[in-house]
C-alpha cells in the first residue's frame, strides 16, 4: 500500500518538474500530455485484460484486481493528461489539480493509515489526520510549484494566487472526506473539484 501511494504521489509531481523542458506553445503542451496519455492506453489494455503485467497491476491497484485499473488509475492518468493539455504550465489550475491529486490525496492516505485513529464523524473511513495532511501537503506543493514556474516566467506569483491555492486545497479536502467521494473515486472527485473551484478563484 505504501509503494502504491508513493507512486501516486511521485508520478504527477515529477512530471510537472519536467514541463519547462517543452516548448511554450500549444504543441509543447500536447507533446507533454502525450506522455501520461500513453498511460491511459496502458490502463485500458491492462484493465480490460488484453495486456498482462502483474507488477504494474499490484503497484496501482488496492486488491490486485486488474479491473481496478479502469477506475482510479485511469482517472489519475486522464486528470494529469487533461491538466497538461488544456491548462499547461501558465495556469494555477493545473498546479492546484496535480498537487492536490498527487501530494494531497497521496499523503492523506499515508498519514491517515498511521495516525488516523480520530475519525471524521460523517465518514468513518476518513480521519482528521489524513484530511489535515491532504490540505497542508496539497497547499504547500501548489505554492512550491507556483514559485518554481515563476522562476521561468510562466506565472506571476502573488498573495492572491497563494490564497486561491489554499481555497482549492481546503475544498478538495472536504470533497475527499465525503462518503460520496469514496464511492466514486478520489482520483475523479479531487481533479473535478480542483477545476471547478480553481475556475472560480483564479
UniProtKB/TrEMBL annotation:
The scientific name of the source species is Escallonia rubra
From the record, give the transmembrane residue ranges. Answer: 7-23, 29-51, 72-88, 94-116, 128-146
Keyword Chloroplast present in the record's keywords: the answer is yes
Its GO CC terms?
chloroplast membrane
Q: Where's it found, cell-wise?
A: Plastid, Chloroplast membrane
Q: Which InterPro entries match?
A: Phytol/farnesol_kinase
- Report how it sits in the membrane: Multi-pass membrane protein
The protein's name in its UniProt record: Phytol kinase
State the similarity comment: Belongs to the polyprenol kinase family.
Q: Which UniProt keywords apply?
A: Chloroplast, Kinase, Membrane, Plastid, Transferase, Transit peptide, Transmembrane, Transmembrane helix
Q: Name one GO molecular function term.
A: kinase activity
